[in-house]
Amino acid sequence: MKPQILPVAPPTADDVRAAAPRIAGRITRTPIIHAEKLSAMTGADIWLKLENLQYTGAFKERGALNKLLLLSDEERTRGVIAASAGNHAQGLARHARALGIPATIVMPITTPDVKVRQTRELGAEVVLVGNDFDEAKKAASQIQTDRSLVFVHPFDDPDVIAGQGTIALEMIEDGPRFDALIVPIGGGGLIAGMALATKDINPDTEVIGVQTALFPSMLNTRDGGDRPTGGNTLAEGIAVKEAGALTQQIVADSVDDIVLVDERTLERSLSILMNEQKVLVEGAGAAGLAAIMDDPARFAGKTVGLVLCGGNIDARLLSMILMRDLARSGRLARLRIQLLDMPGQLVRVATIIANQDGNLIDVGHHRTYSDLPAKMTCMDVTIDTQGRDHLNRIIDNLRKEGYEVEIAAY
Prior knowledge:
Elements: H1 13-23, E1 32-34, H2 36-42, E2 45-50, H3 61-69, H4 73-78, E3 80-83, H5 87-99, E4 103-107, H6 113-121, E5 125-128, H7 133-147, E6 150-151, H8 158-174, E7 180-184, H9 189-201, E8 206-212, H10 217-223, H11 245-254, E9 257-261, H12 263-275, H13 287-294, H14 296-299, E10 303-308, H15 315-328, E11 332-340, H16 345-355, E12 359-366, E13 376-384, H17 388-400, E14 404-407
Parallel strand pairs: 2-10, 3-4, 3-6, 4-5, 7-8, 7-10, 8-9
Antiparallel strand pairs: 1-2, 11-13, 11-14, 12-13
């Protein structure tokens, strides 16, 4: 990677240590818990840092607050502006209001409604512009110039980076000695701060970044790759097309590896955290577990810390993900069954399913829109099962009774 001329000096581990007492009492010192079920599933000894339990539901409060506390009186009077996909926006809005600092937030129009609503409720002026972070940032720069505001970057700012790094200090103080910390990467502020603190205290602890395969911006800067960036990702909190200049340098110096995870693994990881660990996260918050699920052999037997960086997920999206996961596991299935168009057939099909302990939860009957013979019809049934083996037994019994059955794709 070509050396860059940086606009400001990057932070140090001392800056992270100084940020900890500065923000103490204004943010939540979130718990770190031993995830016994996840450990049993993956073979790694997994510990979870629950940053989804911050007041605004994400770690971003730390860096935003540290930055605000270091502003001069003149800068506080002028007010601040930020471009954010949501979590930085809420953290900045919350602490700006508490400190009496006017805040304007520019958000992409694709930002989930829950994050837009919560940011407004925290007292900030919200401007919706652009389809992604980069377009929102461009608009924010113009507003900053027009209004003489102080720009608070969500990741490429030394004070923000130092604030985020306090997570690692807490994990090291409150948890076991880690073989590895796995940290989500968007622009790189979180992993940069955590890497500074971790390598200063425990140089042997691996710091591994994880990005969604749709937005491999930091990995591209690290290895000179030209992987495309863009697309609709579940992990919109780390959907950044261009990594920061400061964060690139710190990552190059202090981060051991960066891995990519695909959307299906992110979905599965989010569902596992919800169903098995009873922890609600957004897509970015599931990235660390996704990295372990993608390569369990790499982490087998190791003590690994994961940062559940946020829990702000739209309820409709969460519902869809959980239902899709049920379908993929065979616990929810839609079957298309061909049958004679005559009385009693629906009852007969329902009886076969019930006799196999299946739960029939939805039925659709199709006569007109079908290319079957006129005396035949088909119906779609949605059933609740105990899993893939149970589903297969139900299908086998329907076929033994002479019915043609297809299972919907998942």
